Amino acid sequence: MKHFLSIEKSSADELEALVGAAAALKAARAAGDLSARPLADQCWGLMFSKSSTRTRVSFEVGIRELGGHAMFFSSRDLQLGRGEPIEDTARVMGRMIHGAIIRNDSQADLERFAECSGVPTINALTELEHPCQLVADLLTLREELGGWRDKKVAFVGDADCNMGRSWVWAAKHLGFELALAGPEGYCPPADYLDGVGAANVSVTDDPLAAAAGAQALYTDVWISMGREDEAASREAAFARYQINPELLSAAAPGAIVMHCLPAYRGKEITAEVLETHADTIFSQAENRLHAQKAVLASLAQF
Ligand code: CP
Ligand code: NVA
Q: Which residues line ligand 1 (CB under 6 A)?
């Protein structure tokens, strides 16, 4: 059984194949060709315990475009939200649905579901990773910069969140330079990075140093879902870690700006920078659809 649970557990070949497939699906859709139906007559379940705009909509549309049927369940809808074990939920759902897409706060529960359900399972964001976002981001790098080979990406902000860690693994597998900039306590710890073992990944508390010469500046919210009670301390800690004109001027000429969204203007990015780079940022959001379809199609064969 094949799943898509993390960038960590994916290989360079798998990531490159997903990005290639996403680009092909995007081109076909633009040409009006929606004939690929690898999910024909299948039912896929989305189980989300956190909010979502992009991930939910792109999966629901993507499943339909690939010929399948999508069912959305919030944790309020499922007995899981009232304490039914994940293993029982998985064994029930696995006898009825063809695949599962899960957004929760527990990579361990996601992996347990994948083990027990017997159906392909996709990580739609956990506390550790957001791998589907990374596939869309890589497609965006390919479109905007021609790829990631010999490129430098600077991730500025909450470098130890699910997005920062997904970028670390992508850099490890694909070999591009990744500079993470965040305040003390909000960067991947040294023992984690030692375990990754990627000489092309660096960490600094200086956002200008990270941005220096980068072809892509990337940020995410300062306050991830579930961290709302830390808002005041995070806003104080992250005040210097903003994509603004000064940071852009340290980057390579013509650098692109990326944001997984949702964006908080005046926090991790200024309104001006966001609007100037809106074409890239909203293409990146659109690429979620093409990336999800590539992930779904790659698992539907199993
Ligand atoms: N980037 C992203 O995953 O957005 P949503 O939370 O809206 O799905
Ligand atoms: N780090 C963010 C990503 C949102 C898409 C969060 O977990 O809320």
A: 52-55, 125, 133, 260-261
Domain that holds residue 184: 133-285
Q: pLDDT of 26-58, one tens digit each?
A: 999 999 999 999 999 999 999 999 999 999 999
41 alpha carbon to ligand 1 midpoint, in Å?
A: 27
- At 91, is the secondary structure helix, strand, or coil? helix
Give yes or no: residues 107 and 245 share one domain. Answer: no
* DSSP secondary structure string for all residues of 151-204: -EEEEES-TTSHHHHHHHHHHHHH--EEEEE--TTSS--HHHHHHHT-TTEEEE
Give pLDDT tens digits for 140-156. Answer: 999 999 999 999 999 99
Write the CATH number for 209.
3.40.50.1370
Give the pair of three-digit tokens for residue 216.
């892509």
